[in-house]
Amino acid sequence: MAGNLKKLAMCAMVAFGGVAMAQDAAAQDAAAPAQEPVKTPSAEAVKSTWDYFYKAQGQGPVLVDAKLCTEVAKNGPNKFECIAEANPDAVKANTSMMLWQSYLVPQGDTIDDLMVQVKQGNVVRETKDVRIKGEGWRARQWTGVRMNKAGDWTVSILRGDQVLKTINVKVQ
Question: How far, in Å, are 35, 115, 118 from residue 104 at the CA level?
Fold first, then answer.
């Protein structure tokens, strides 16, 4: 009988010890910041992305994202990501900023007809060439931009005469 009690006690320790450890892990997870769930793409979306990357040479880039940043990570898990996004509704004059861009470029292609153009009102203040390569799933680029006077500005990404994206900026 004493042997059975020992076995029962051991089983209880194993069973409830695992529950306690699971509760500790759940408590730690609750303390960590919640990550937003990532939507699973459809099989068709994945296939069309693969097809574009592997078979669309010569068709040009797809601009996936662009934003004004004050800092891009140089190391770590967020390497080459915009880690400090600027608020385009309240930028101080002479703030050092970059236009961070992310593209999907067909494998092996080099795109050299992109430009970043900075305008104050209708006056072009700066135009910079952008060159990207299809060497991986994402081609990221950040281009320094200057807005040194108060007023309404625009930062645009152009490919030839086509505007891919424009960000309106209020400089104070």
Answer: 25, 16, 23
Q: How much is the mean pLDDT over the chain? A: 84
Report pLDDT for 115: 97
Amino acid at 34: A
Entry pTM: 0.76
Structure tokens at 23: 């509760």
Residues 6+ apart with CB under 8 A from 60: 109, 111, 159
pLDDT at 34: 65
DSSP 8-state assignment for residue 172: -
Can you give the pLDDT at residue 85?
A: 94
Burial of 62 by CB count in 10 Å (0-12 exposed, 13-18 middle, 19+ buried)?
Answer: middle
Tokens of 124: 């072009």
Q: How many Å apart are CA 59 and CA 45, to the nearest integer?
A: 18
Average pLDDT over residues 149-167: 96
**d(C-alpha 53, C-alpha 89), whole Å:** 35
Torsion (CA) 143, 144, 148, 154 in degrees, nearest 10: 10
Contacting residues for 73 by C-beta, under 8 A, at least 6 apart: 79, 80, 81, 83
Q: Region 47-68: what's the mean pLDDT?
A: 97
